[in-house]
């Protein structure tokens, strides 16, 4: 009988045997435990919720001291190889149509790696709700093979760096670059491009399989530490739909869709390391679950080379199969199936490059059930650096029995060490009745696995883990990694654009987590935006930022709002304009916090504008204002206002008359009920009206002619259809801030521009147009509200405080030191406050120069080391009527809502150089203020607050000249100590 015909007969008989072996008399579920015991039952129990673990016949299958090695549902069978799928380096496979490629970037304020989008050929969502994604994002760095149209000859084969076209052409490439719908290749010196629709299979060059495996473990077991220890296992799903997906025990969720006692009603949410999204798998479609300890590596996850030298009747075809018998179907040898296997036809020699920390190997070998009681082989296991086999079986005849390969170990492993599995057809000296040559020598290497050094694996995972946090890309982790705690945490959100998923989070327990980078801030870069949050806890830990060692942000990390993405914490913003155009060193840190409060780092981005706020005509230049036109296209005659009274300056002033268009948008601003990032709902603006009348703002949009969107403020007599906003009556020369909910008023809009109008007598001044998805997000802006123009009339205040300043502000000269300003804070005792330096010494003599030029000897008192604020004293001060004091402010932190008067003696002592400056960035004790266009404030300049008190001192300058203010509170807090009392 011809060999292939004989094999066909064997296959038919095997199917009959399989049917008999899995008849109705056997239980539906059967599992093999780690100790070799088999348990079975018709009912799988207790796996219907996320905090429960599966049990079969009373045996815990995942946790505990004797977990399963595999479990199979006998009512199902393995799937045929899908026609289209993506295959991962680990042997995982996701069936479906690969639709597109996406480069690495930012989606919804979170960093995402480059990935492929695949439309699965099986149900994968927790519910049918259409708001969830209809595709799965598969990470590019885990992909080994992309198949649009299966080529049977390539099943379980990988040909690195090769594309197989649908027209039969095969091309090996040197380099590849992806576009959204195709590939661009470098072939020798030629460049080629193909669309995805032209490709049957694309096999990628994969980096070191060991590095890929480490990356997977670092995602699934961040830091290499899992509690409890009995959950340090991986679980692989294989379904009757063709899905093969591996995850960790921690990344499994469960849901019951009805009867909790009926496993057919269960679904399990899993997230492999290669998937950006969770995948929900129906229990009733899961044929096989495999499980192994994290310090073991199933051999099918390593690439191999097969040699079949010496094959005779089977020389055409019959390449090794992964987790299948050589003739396809479930591998079975002896009295049970194989949870995982390598199916080969003898003679076969499989070679595997071993991981560098491999310490041993375990397997069994047997003839597949398809050979029934025939076939004859000898199995051997070699390591490449030794000539004798580590294991050699006796002749095995028929599929009735298997042979254990024993516990194979080695003391040292060379860098190029290989594991070799050899099967010989044992033609010579074969037992009586055995098939000759390679007839029916179908063999299974049963559950082969490499053993890894447990401690070295933990250390390697720990070292790899920071690289898996995408937000840290481009930043250097300078903290001691041993002081950090990494976790895999389920991001429990229900957003329109995001389902719950698992993230790597981090706890800084004993010292801060610090990330640093050196970067030139481009002139167009205005903000550093940090998207980090936690899911539980109070006001710790903090997120902090320093630039050139200047503290610019210190805020408690907020909790994620799990049900309303609009009000989830907005990213943290740092204004970078004081550093634009310069190379700086940045440090972002997470302060220590409780063990159970882990932080999710989603993105650190340099942006021209915030991702969640849209300022309009922000700090306009005089040229911008001069160029404004009316809606009709005529010059608007707008005026640029930058006077001192406007602490939020500059602002825009218009006269009564036609609509003035202040903005137009090439990409319309989308107003939505539940805005996604990049969409908005709220608007905030401020205005001041002089004289009678009111103001109006018009949101230009694509249906503006038939349905104008107009707000009116300050009147109850606006035209019909116009939305009237409070206040209904405007107080003249007072600023009013208004924050309408655009969606509530006008529903969905695509805004193409903004126009404003002053109606009635006199003119109006405008400032602070900002779109936001939520009113709460405005709080992230450090800019002063225009309402402060009402509270802080610095034109009037300067007239009140300057006479006092002239008698309180002095110049201090120290030997061989540049002069610095100081201010009198205690007239009776002759005590002045000033900024000191590293050379400050109590008792040193200094000279004070008053505004009238008179000089006085004085001595240094104490200095606070941290803030470098110190006190000096004139002994026996003359009370001649030429002195006055300015009291110290008692606040222990800055208030970013208010501006300050910065002051110092002018070059002419009788004059005061001063200006009004507002906060740009801030912490509780340090602020960067807007610079003065006309005054170069020196180190030590005095900051006076709205209460005419000393708020702080200029301690330094930013690269672009903006003054850095340190709070005066240490002088108030430690005054008695510094005086020496």
TrEMBL record:
Keywords per UniProt: Signal
Source organism of the structure: Bremerella alba
Q: Please state what the protein is called.
A: NPCBM/NEW2 domain protein
**Which residues constitute the signal peptide according to the record?**
1-21
Domain of life from the UniProt record: Bacteria
